[in-house]
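Question (not urgent): is this output format expected?
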Amino acid sequence: MLSEGQFWDLHEADGPFTADAGDRTAQVLIFSGKWGTELGGCGIFELTSSTLGWSKGDPVTYPKSTNFDSHYHDCDEYWVIFEGSGTVVVGSRSFEVEVGDCVAIGMGHHHDLPQVRSNVKGAYFETTLEGKKRFGHLWEHKHGPADVRPDRV
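Got this back:
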């Protein structure tokens, strides 16, 4: 039995799998692939418009109305949006996201969710750590230049 925000590492050899929510509604998200043993992380995130406070992320030049920080990773990252809508920035590109969208973010590319039109809830999955293999949100002003992989836009 899993609760919201809990994860289970499934192995194909252990399948088949079923999901039973009883009399409740459940959302099941399966990321499938082959990764190394040092993963960046995974989890659920929620984001609302907020009064901007101090942000430890890298400075930005675009409009911002969330406390989400502009950062990069030493791995690739994927977001799947379950609820809400907003604006995502990856590198120099900006685009709108809504329920059902998947955002693929290549290693070293700065990314942010600076604005929400309606409260956003989603899942993130960070793949195998590479390069310096630093964990978490990385900022140029604290951790140094990003190791951008141009082929992973």
